[in-house]
Write a structure and sequence with these properties.
Helix content is about 30%, strand content about 30%. The protein is α/β, with parallel strands linked by helices.
């Protein structure tokens, strides 16, 4: 029997929005997947040829790019940050909408003009996207890599600005920050490993199933 297709899904908010799409595409996880006490990372589904793994969003792209998983769901922010040549993102799932933005302390934003920047020091978990964005404007970006708690960086003097995902903007406001520039709009995509997509018809069939779901 051939190895099952490994489908990588991200923990958190995107997963909640993705589950109805998975069901409509004919994939339903075993009961343990919805057990909040379960520490398992790999799960069977109603299909013998498909198993789910639940990992951090950034890791979804890595698993699929390296072929450990063959298909997955992840935000376009992660795709753009890693820019793996092995990834193909054939379907926009129209979920997980947010944006990547530059934010700074409110007091600074009152007099600051992003068009005048020549050098910025930024705390972010998106150093590649951040450098690329600022380089396109002729601005040198010094990036301090953080994996979380971005909003506290300006308060503690680590960096005067941050680049992070913004949904409602409530977290920024609660930490005295103001959004001053949008780098990119984000939505979640179905991604596949290019080599697996070309060689495994079952993966192509899964992609077609998601296309049909999105075309309604």
């Amino acid at each position: 029997m051939s190895q099952p297709i490994i489908f990588a899904v991200p923990k958190g908010r995107i997963l909640e929005e993705a589950m109805p799409l998975l069901a409509r595409a004919g994939i339903e996880p075993e009961a343990a997947f919805n057990d909040s006490k379960s520490r398992a990372l790999k799960f069977a589904t109603n299909r013998d040829d498909v198993e789910l793994i639940r990992v951090r969003a950034f890791d979804v792209a890595t698993f699929v790019a390296h072929g450990a998983a063959q298909i997955g769901i992840v935000g376009s922010d992660v795709i753009d940050e890693f820019d793996y040549s092995e990834l193909y993102a054939p379907v926009d799932l129209n979920i997980g909408h947010c944006r990547i933005s530059v934010a700074e302390p409110k007091a600074l934003a009152e007099t600051d003009d992003p068009r005048s920047w020549s050098h910025v020091r930024v705390a972010t978990k998106y150093p590649n996207m951040t450098r690329k964005h600022f380089a396109s404007r002729g601005v040198q970006a010094e990036c301090v890599k953080l994996n979380g708690a971005m909003e506290i960086a300006p308060l503690l003097g680590l960096a005067s600005r941050i680049v992070d995902l913004v949904s409602t903007g409530k977290t920024l406001v609660e930490n005295g920050l103001e959004e001053v520039e949008v780098i990119a709009q984000v939505s979640s995509r179905l991604i596949v490993n290019r080599a697996a997509f070309k060689t495994n018809p079952a993966i192509s069939a899964l992609v077609d199933a998601f296309r049909q779901v999105m075309n309604g």
